Amino acid sequence: MSSPDSKTSLKQDTKLTHSGREPRSFHGFVNPPIVHASTVLYPDVETMVTGGQTYSYARRGNPTTDSLENALKDIEGAEGVKIANSGLNAVALAIMSCVKSGDHILIADTAYGPTRHFADTVLPSIGVSVEYYDPSLGSEIRSLFRAETAAVFTEAPGSLSFEMQDIPAIAEAAREIDASVLMDNTWASPLFCQPLALGVDLSIQAGTKYIVGHSDAMLGTVASSERAWEKLDALCGAMGCHVAPDDIYLGLRGLRTLSVRLERHQRNTFEILDWLKGQPQIGTLRYPALKSDPGYEIWKRDFSGSSGLFAFDFVDGTTKEQNFKFLNALKLYGLGYSWGGFESLAIPVRLKGMRTATPFDVNLQSVRLHIGLEDPEDLIKDLDQALEKAFG
Ligand SMILES: *Cc1c(COP(=O)(O)O)cnc(C)c1O
Fold it and tell me: Which of 89, 123, 205, 326 would disulfide-bridge 85, Cβ 3.0–4.6 Å?
């Protein structure tokens, strides 16, 4: 087997299959073992005091963790990768690694709700000032820069409203003032968007979603550029971050089939969107891979595919009761948070309190769907009967 370095020239699907695996290191077994560990023993005290072996203590590294980190390092073209306990934990660690007391951080107004909660509670308590910005700003974001601006947080498409951001323009502007750029890239996964190649310093994934892919574990990942790596690595070391090897393994296992799953999620989603377009109760479809979407041009330029998550608005005049009736009538779509597993899900979109920098009609009746791997014909029939119950 070749060294990991030679894998960087391979295509993404090949990396998904081969990266992070070294069967020769584990008696030829295809997959790495799940190493349950704390203590690592040394052959003698000299090796111990000189740090003369690869592993020293499981908090500082473990072959199962290394396997997932190395795979993602190849796939994201990163200097290094850190695995976190959840997507939110990955967001928090990435932000903490690039701000300190007295700094200012700009956060997209469309950021994931719990990211806002972290920013509104923890960051002010350590002396970091938080400012939300209009996600439609590209290079004009310069007008918000202050002497103490240390980081710009982006997420594309944004949570619930699916607005796109001009990441390369933001990254170029931030580079001029040496501010770090972070991107929550959960929607596209590293397969359909490569944040580091767009100029981002820290690329964040809620691994819970498409990487794990089976709704059975929680993980977060942060892939770092060369300039951001030292601080991220040092922070995670100092904070004692460690993720259980069983969950890491579920991430690795999910990663191997990411490409085939996403292809199907994408295909099913287009079929369902096509059908939704023709329904009189449905208004705007929020999915940047649709030509009708305001974010389409950016999506086409920066992304190579789309996933199974989108939202739609019901037509004007729809009541909250009709929206809820529709959701309650669904049989194949589970009512539940999170997404990215094999199954379809639905939630009502509630943006109250989630937009502070840009106007947004919080009374809009909208639904977010995750389209799973079921047969799309069944999924359409289910939507049809639920619309009939709510509006019929
Ligand atoms: C789900 C999600 C997260 C958080 O991931 P968890 O694993 O649930 O903590 C972060 N960002 C986005 C865009 C998400 O959808």
Answer: 89
* Residue 184 annotated to the active site: yes
Q: For the whole model, what pTM was predicted?
A: 0.97
Helix H, strand E, coil C: the string for the chain is CCCHHHHHHCCHHHHHHHCCCCHHHHCCCCCCCCCCCCECCCCCHHHHHHCCCCCCEHHHCCHHHHHHHHHHHHHHCCCEEEEECCHHHHHHHHHHCCCCCCCEEEEECCCCHHHHHHHHHHHHHCCCEEEEECCCCCHHHHHHCCCCEEEEEEECCCCCCCCCCCHHHHHHHHHHCCCEEEEECCCCHHHHCCHHHHCCCEEEECCCCCCCCCCCCCCEEEEECHHHHHHHHHHHHHHCCCCCHHHHHHHHHHHHCHHHHHHHHHHHHHHHHHHHHCCCCEEEEECCCCCCCCCHHHHHHHCCCCCCEEEEEECCCCCHHHHHHHHHHCCCCEECCCCCCCCCEEEECCCCCCCCCCCCCCCCCEEEEECCCCCHHHHHHHHHHHHHHHHC
Catalytic residue among 42, 55, 59, 296: 59
User: What's residue 7's pLDDT?
Assistant: 59
Q: Across all residues in the chain, what is the average pLDDT?
A: 96
Q: Which CATH architecture has domain 259-391?
A: Alpha-Beta Complex (3.90)
Kindly report, as residue ranges, where domains of CATH 3.90.1150.10 are found in the chain: 259-391
How remote is the CA of residue 207 from the centroid of ligand 1, in Å?
8
Q: How far is the CA of 119 from the centre of ligand 1 (A)?
A: 15
- pLDDT per position as a tens digit, 190-244: 999 999 999 999 999 999 999 999 999 999 999 999 999 999 999 999 999 999 9
Question: Is residue 209 among the annotated active site residues?
Answer: yes
Residues of the chain with CATH 3.40.640.10: 11-256
Quick one: which atom of ligand 1 is closest to the CA of 186? Answer: 13
The CATH number given to 11-256 is 3.40.640.10
Q: In which residue are the tokens 């690595």 written?
A: 233
Give the model's pLDDT for residue 4.
47
